[in-house]
Structure formats: C-alpha cells, structure tokens
Write a structure and sequence with these properties.
The complex is a heterotrimer of chains A (270), B (292) and C (393). By secondary structure, chain B is α/β, with parallel strands linked by helices. Chain B is built from 7 helices and 14 strands. The radius of gyration of chain B is 20 Å and the shape is globular. Chain C contains 13 helices and 15 strands. Classes of the chains: A alpha/beta (270), B alpha/beta (292), C alpha+beta (393).
Chain lengths: 270, 292, 393
C-alpha cells in the first residue's frame, strides 16, 4: 500500500469540485476530533475552513465533488500530481453525484431551461467520478461521508496502515444495531442489501428504507433483489428511481436503472 | 436454597493469563534483514515469568500484536530448546506485517500463543525427512530444522529443499553452512536467476527429482504457497510417499487463533487449532476443491 | 418459610399476576430482564419491566423474506414464535471491546477494566434457542480455549423458557430435534394454557425463584402443584404441535411448517461440493449476510485494533463477521472464496455438515430465522432438498 508515514507531520489538502460542500462540512463537523486531526496533520489547503493556503506537494489530498466542467479536467490532473495519497470523499467524487442524473439527458436542454444566458455556462456533457480521470488511492463513500470513517482514514494514513472501511452491505449494520428489517417486516423496497455500509444504517433505524447513499456494496445482486421486490408488488418505475439518486452513475446502479427502464432482460429476470 | 446473588460471581477473566486474549509483552532484541521485504526479529519477553514458562513446538505460531495497529499470525522460527528468545520471520505484505517489519531493536510488541498443532516430529523419528519450503514458508520449518540438528541421530537422511523468486530472496542464507555441517542435504532453486547463480532455475517440486527417495521410509514436511504445497505433495505421492506421511502448513486469515472467531475454516477444519500442520491425506481432498 | 422445598422437575400453576411478580423478583435481584415485545413491526427481545409489555394477543406470519404481525383475540402471550433477535444478541453481542490499552513512557499496558457484566434474565426462550445456546456454549466454552467475556455473561444468565403451542411456516425445529418442547437448559419453563401458565422447574436457581414467589404470598401455593395427570396434559401441548409438524399437516388456519431431511446430511453435502445448485442459489443470493447475523448459532467474528488520534489509547474491538462478506475470506495475495457461490456453500456446508465434525452436532436448530430474514427468501431446506433430489454422481 501507499504509505505516507513521514518524520514530519503529513501535509493535508482539501479540494472541491462540483458538489454541495456537505462532505467538507462533515470534516468540520468532526468537532472534538478535528483538533486531534489538526495535531496529526498540517492542514495546508482547506478553503472551506481557512483562507491561508500553502502550495503543494501534499501528502494527503481529499477531493470532494465530480468532474463537471472543462476546467475541472486540467485541475484534477494537477491535483493528482501534487498529492501522494489521493482520496475521493463522497458520492459526487466517487460516482458523479446527484448531478450525474443529467447524464441521461441532453445537457444543452438543461442549460437552456435553467440559465438565462446559457452561453456563459461551460459544462461537460456528463458529470463523472474523479477516478474516471486520474488514479485514486482510496475512496470514502457516502452522501455525505461519515465522520467516523473520515477520522479512521486520517488515523490510518498517519500511522501507515490501510484504512478499515467495510465494503459489506448496510444489512450488516442494521443487524448489528438490532434494527428490524424494513424490507422483510414491512415490505418496503430498501437498497440496504446492495448498498455499502458506512452510515450505521441510519435510515432503517428511523423506519425508512436505505437510499443507497454509500453506493453499491461488494458484488451487489441488484437483479435478484429487485426481482423479489417486483414479485412483492413494487413497480419497476419506483425501483428504477430508487437506484437513480446520489450514486446513480456508479456502474452497478447505472446498469440496474437501465435494465429496469426497459433494457434487455437477463436470465434471472425471467 | 436461594438464588445466587449477582455480586457473588467471580470477576471476568480478560486479564487472566489463561485467557486466549492474554498477550505477553516483549521487546525486539535483534533484527536481521533477510531480503528486501523480509526481516527476522528475535524478541525477548519483558516479564521473567514469561521468559521462564513460555514453551513452543516446531510448527506452532504466535499472534503478534501491535496495539492500535493490528495483529498477525506468524510462525515461530527459532530453536524450540531456547524459548526465552523467540524468532519470527516476517514478510511485509499487509498493514500489520509492514508495521512489524519496521520494528527496531528495543521496540515493544505483544505475543499471544503459541497456537496450533506442530510438525509431528516425535512420530517421524527414525525416518528420512524431506523439508520443503517455498519463500517465507521457510520460517515455518526452521524450528523443525533446529530440532533435527539437535536430535540429528534420531532421524535418517534429511534433505531441505528451498525455493525463492530470486537468489536474493533465499532466506536464512547465513545458516546454510551450519545445516550442511549437521549432515543436511540442502537444495536451492530460484524462479529467476541472477548473475552468479550456479543453481537450478524453476520450482521447488522439481528438486524432489534430485533426491534418492526410499518412499516407505520417507516423510515430507512442507510449507509455502498452497499451489506449491499441492505440487510438492502430488509429486511426492507419485514418488511413492504415503499421503499420511506428507505434512503441510496452511495459512488463513484468523482473528483469535483459538477456534473462537471462525475465520480460518477450510472444509471441516479450523486451521488455527486443527492445523496449521495437517497431514495431506486429511487436508488434500479439501485443498483440491476450488474456492473452499 | 412456606414451601421452600421445590426442586428441579417440580410443576406449579402461575397466573398472569404471578408472571409480573416473577419479573419484579428478578429485577429486585439485580437482573436486567428482557423478553419479547413489539418494536418496529416485529417481536424483538427488549427490556421488560411489566408483563403488560409482553405481546399478548399478537401473532407473527412468517415466510421466506416476509414477516408480518397481526392481532388475534384468541392468541395468548407467547403464541408468536421467534423474531429477528436471539440470545446471541445478548451473550455474544454484535460489538464488544475485548481489551483496552494505554501507552506511557514505559510502553503499552493492558488497562481493561474488570467489570462483571450485569446478570440477565430472558423471558420467552424457545426450544430452538435453548438448543442454539447449547451450541454456542460448545463453541465458546467447550474447546481448549474459553472465551472469557462470553463465559462471564453465561454465568449470569437466567432463562425463563416457553413451550411453543404454534409453529410458523419457517419453523422446522422438529427436524433438528430441538423443539417444539423447550429444554433442557432452562431455569423455569412456561406452558400457556387456559389463560394461565404451568411452570416447570429446570434448575436450582429456578426452584429458588419459585420458592421466593411462594414466600411472597403470591398465587403459587402448595395446592397449586400440578398432579401427574395435569403434568401429562401440559406436556402434551408441545408434543401435539411436534406431531403436527412431523406430519406436516397443520390445523385449519395454521401454516404448514418446513422440514429438513437430515439423514446422512454431512456426507450428502460434502460429496456435492461442486453441485450446480450452488451457482443457482448464488444467482439469487445477495451475499448481504442477513442469514448469518440472525442465525442464533453463527459465531464468526473479527477483531479490529483501533487507536485514538493521540495514539496513546488503543482497544481491541470484536464484532460479528459473516462468511458472506469478502473480508471474511481475505488473505494476502487473494481471496479464498471470491464468488458468492463459494460463500453460500461455505455457510450451508459449515452449518449442516462441518459443524458435526467440529462440535459433534448440527449448527442448525430449525428456528427458521435465515429463511424469514433473507431479503429474497432463500430457504436452506429447499436448497438441501434440491441437492438431495439430484446429487452429483
């Protein structure tokens, strides 16, 4: 693995692309632990938190947001050159974000509908993940990311071990906290079985289905799950909308949406 | 007859030396770099009681713990007659082994163990031994080699077969002279030769062809990557050695090393407590099933 | 002291008020009392301080991937069956700290506090769950190495069992020899009949509690000791259900339970490790791990070594692990079970075959939780039947 254990404190930088800033706010929201993080690393570039900015290269780069405008591309290439260990934080950086819903439409039509003078707006045809443009060393999922995972990432990288971030399903977190399954006990279509853990099953613990904020879990079997929900009476339209949110452009959710929207049926489908 | 009062129960035993989670503090006494990513470290227990009481058998392993970083199962690679200092050969492959391989003299670590079933050396007395090791697998047979040197007269012919990626990756190079002095027939092989390499190029199983084997009198102990062990076992069986005289040491992820965590299962076996050493007649059929 | 002579094997009558006194006595003794109660659309195991919190008049309809509660005026207090929780949630909790470590200038020190766990009393434990407890006891206490945290909790456990009068469609305890009658292993066991409970004493702790109940001037008096004929009648209640389950013929309005043919099951599964059925079930399996986490016997766990950001405080955190996750079979240089088919096979063959080699019994009690709580309703009894029907030659 890449290790950034150095004699000096590692230098940390935080960068933003197309996003809502929510993931950066999670970093600020770490409150008690932010001071401890600041003791472990030099925060040399984090415009959301302080105006002082020191030039690279940096040991750890946290990147929020998706690649959405032509100017983003040279910028992310330069950030990659400046950062030894590059981490994408959040659904936008990791899979294109909610703004990737435009990838199914015509961006010019959206621009015309939203902006008075679309000519002033430079936008790429698609909103894409950072990893589509540069190599990424680690990704923190979530919309927004989970503060505990962020602290784990920083602690791990500082001592030179791989961060412990599970890739199993949200169901594991539901069961560990004793939450009753909303899909089984209430018949609500829930993305938990195919979504990566990390939120500590926040929505099911509040009687709501999982919305897939942390993106696909390891080897997700969306076809089987949605087949079961369909047989229980859920409509393809509803199931398609469920995967078409924060991580809609992740390869697995993307393919499932298109399948539900009328793509070719698979063996398991029949 | 009354319901026992809760407070009359004994306190929990997490600090009890008998607990499988109890870890003995130790310090690194000396280190030896074996190759670019392999380091042997000799550790000495901090407490006199542990220096006095700790015993292990060749083929057993310890769990080496770095608080806050992690724990790894590592074979004990030193002479079982001298348990007050214990050697471990570590290849830096994961987070924990990287951290272990960075330890320097005087650094502290914690030891749980020993765990697992050893090489059945007592039962193999009077027999010819072939000791085959691929890469860092040599660490797991090293204590057996030490035992055989101490009790040389108890065994027949002994051959050590060791293979590595390149000549620079061969382990324990400074020990080879001593092994040969004890009448051990040493054969080395590398996947890729380097300038100055006079020996054969290839894989450990090929070295079996260089030996004159009396199958009925020969036992084989083997540690290395699973495909290598299977190839060695198949070739030995073809040479006439009984599967129940072939012993392999299996590696699996484990969290407890004491049969409690369930992670190390292979077929009906817990590698931590039924292994790591298992005879090939028992484990071979399970190794042959893909992804078991 | 009136009637302190009750011994294991005794039978008494208890009315609903007596149940409340029992709860009060246990709480007064310092026990945390838990039992069945309704939460979030299911009957879970939660804290109980009043018998009124028990789900009297509620039934659960269970099937593959489906659980629904409904009210039924005729239903008693314990006519539901098992829910998503089991004794495992309490004796082998999902997360626990095994050790605390503190670092000073001399190095690290084990600073784990020696706090005994609070005694726990569980109301409503079924035959399948007593069997599951015995299985977990063999795992955590029965080998060369004893798990101290489990042992400490186990030694402080009081079990108020219940004999089932009803089975769900997912139940097959009769196939596994684990029910529907409860026992052995309980302190007291209740059989509900005609609005009251017949209580069987199973241990000295149970006898002591009943004696104390009598001493409080409670409804239990010597006159209310069951005679032989009454004991036989009460004993026949779970037996009748057992016969119904074996015959796979339910009374009208009741579901037909599942069953599992265990004849030669170890050799059947181990000689079919490359059966095409494993891939067929993998096409449906989500590898979400729910089955293993609701299973009352699954015991896999992982340990994480964590440190605070100062690096001076560390702990060893144990949490449930599942053979359905890739983490479980991760090794240096690859994964031992990279496919869903290999992981489903690991679970089923361990549970029903390898367990017999390891612990001398099946790892399955027939509680049916893995069927109900599988989000797509995969049914292990159907998987085994499919392999039995067409084994690989």
């Amino acid at each position: 693995m890449t290790t950034v254990a150095t004699a000096k404190k590692p230098r940390l930088a935080v960068f933003k692309f197309a996003s809502c800033d929510g993931c950066q706010l999670q970093l600020l929201d770490a409150e008690g632990q932010l001071r401890a993080i600041a003791d472990q690393v030099e925060i040399d570039h984090f415009l959301e938190a302080r105006s002082r900015s020191l030039p690279g290269p940096y040991d750890i780069g946290l990147v929020e947001g998706s690649i959405s405008t032509p100017a983003d591309i040279p910028r992310i290439l330069e950030i990659r050159r400046q950062c030894r260990f590059l981490v994408t934080i959040g659904a936008c950086a990791t899979s294109g974000g909610i703004q990737a819903l435009r990838n199914w439409g015509q961006v010019d039509e959206f621009l015309g509908a939203v902006y008075a003078t679309p000519a002033y707006v430079q936008s790429l045809e698609k909103s894409t993940a950072i990893a589509d443009h540069v190599p990424v060393d680690f990704e923190l999922r979530g919309c927004p990311i989970d503060t505990r995972q962020l602290v784990e990432l920083v602690s791990a990288v500082v001592v030179g071990r791989r961060p412990r971030v599970p890739t199993y399903s949200v169901c594991v977190e539901c069961k560990m906290r004793g939450t009753v399954c909303v899909a089984v006990a209430r018949g609500i279509a829930c993305l938990g079985p195919v979504t990566q853990a990390g939120c500590d099953a926040l929505c099911p613990a509040h009687d709501r289905e999982c919305f897939g904020c942390f993106g696909p879990s390891q080897q997700p079997n969306l076809v089987s799950l949605n087949g079961f929900y369909e047989r229980q009476g859920a409509s393809r339209e509803r199931l398609g909308r469920l995967v078409q949110s924060f991580n809609a452009w992740s390869p697995e959710f993307h393919a499932e949406h298109d399948r539900l929207a009328g793509g070719p049926d698979t063996e398991a489908d029949r | 007859m009354t319901l026992p009062a809760p407070l009359s129960y004994p306190p929990p035993e997490s600090l009890d030396p008998g607990s499988p989670w109890h870890a003995r503090p130790a310090r690194i006494d000396r280190v030896r770099d074996e190759s670019a990513d392999v380091r042997t470290m000799v550790l000495v227990f901090e407490q006199a009681r542990d220096r006095r009481d700790y015993r292990f058998l060749p083929g057993q392993f310890n769990m080496l713990l770095l608080p806050g970083i992690g724990e790894a199962a590592i074979s004990i690679a030193s002479d079982p007659e001298h348990c007050s200092a214990v050697a471990h050969t570590v290849r830096a492959v994961g987070s924990v082994t990287h951290a272990l391989a960075r330890l320097e003299v005087g650094d502290q670590l914690f030891v749980r163990g020993p765990f697992g079933r050893p090489w059945p050396l007592e039962e193999l007395r009077e027999r010819d031994l072939i000791i085959a090791a691929g890469g860092v697998g040599l660490a797991s047979v090293q204590a057996a080699i030490c035992h055989c040197m101490t009790h040389r007269g108890d065994y027949g012919r002994i051959a050590v077969l060791h293979g590595a990626k390149t000549p620079a990756d061969l382990l324990c190079r400074s020990d080879y002279g001593r092994w040969r002095d004890h009448g051990i027939d040493l054969h080395l092989i590398v996947d890729h030769a380097a300038p100055g390499w006079q020996g054969p190029v290839g894989f450990v199983p090929q070295l079996l062809d260089r030996l004159e084997i009396v199958p009925s009198e020969t036992s084989l102990i083997c540690c290395g990557p699973e495909p290598m062990m299977e190839a060695v076992a198949r070739r030995s069986i073809a040479a006439g050695i009984d599967p129940d005289q072939i012993f392999v040491s299996i590696e699996r992820l484990m969290a407890c090393a004491s049969g409690l965590c369930g992670l190390c299962q292979l077929g009906p076996f817990f590698i931590c407590k039924d292994g790591p050493v298992l005879s090939y007649d028992r484990i071979g059929p399970w190794l042959a099933v893909p992804h078991l | 002291m009136p009637d302190s002579s009750s011994i294991p094997g005794d039978w008494r009558w208890l009315d609903a008020d007596g149940l409340q006194i029992l709860i009060d006595l246990l709480r007064g003794r310092g026990f945390r009392v838990v039992g069945p109660r309704i939460a979030d659309g299911a009957i879970v195991i939660g804290d109980i301080d009043s018998a009124a919190q028990l789900p009297t008049g509620w039934l659960d309809d269970q099937d593959g991937g489906s659980y629904r509660l409904r009210q039924d005026k005729a239903a008693g207090t314990f006519d539901h069956v098992v829910g998503p929780h089991s004794l495992k949630n309490f004796l082998f909790p999902a997360r626990e700290t095994l050790q605390h470590w503190t670092r000073d200038d001399r190095g690290w020190h084990d600073t784990t506090p020696a706090e005994p766990p609070r005694p726990l009393a569980v109301i409503g434990v079924r035959g399948c769950d007593l069997a599951a407890l015995a299985i977990q006891d063999r795992v955590f206490l029965g080998g060369d190495h004893v798990d101290p945290a489990y042992k400490a909790r186990r030694e402080r456990l009081f079990l108020l069992a219940v004999n089932c009068r009803r089975a769900a469609a997912t139940c097959f305890c009769h196939s596994m020899g684990c029910g529907p009658a409860a026992g052995p292993g309980f302190d007291l066991a209740l059989t509900e009949t005609d609005g009251r409970f017949a209580v069987e004493t199973g241990s000295e702790a149970g006898a002591a509690l009943l004696a104390e109940l009598a001493a409080r001037g409670s409804p239990v008096t010597p006159a209310e000791i069951l005679d032989e004929a009454a004991i036989e009648q009460v004993r026949d209640i779970p037996r009748r259900l057992g016969r119904e389950m074996h015959a796979r013929r339910a009374e009208p309005g009741r579901p037909v339970p599942r069953s599992l043919d265990t004849d030669g099951i170890r050799d059947l599964l181990f000689s079919n490790l490359e059966h095409p059925r494993w891939q067929q079930v993998a096409d449906r399996c989500l590898s979400c791990a729910n089955c293993t986490l609701v299973c009352p016997t699954c015991f896999c766990s992982s340990v994480s070594d964590v440190a605070d950001l100062s690096g001076d405080h560390a702990s060893r955190e144990r949490q449930w692990a599942s053979c359905f996750t890739l983490e479980h079979s991760q090794m240096h240089g690859g994964n031992a079970r990279p496919t869903v088919a290999s992981r489903y096979r690991q679970w089923l063959t361990h549970k029903l075959a390898g367990w017999i080699d390891q612990f001398g019994s099946s790892g399955c009690t027939g509680c049916g939780r893995c069927i109900t709580w599988c989000p797509v309703g995969i049914d292990l009894t159907a998987e085994v039947a499919a392999i039995r029907e067409a084994p690989t030659p």
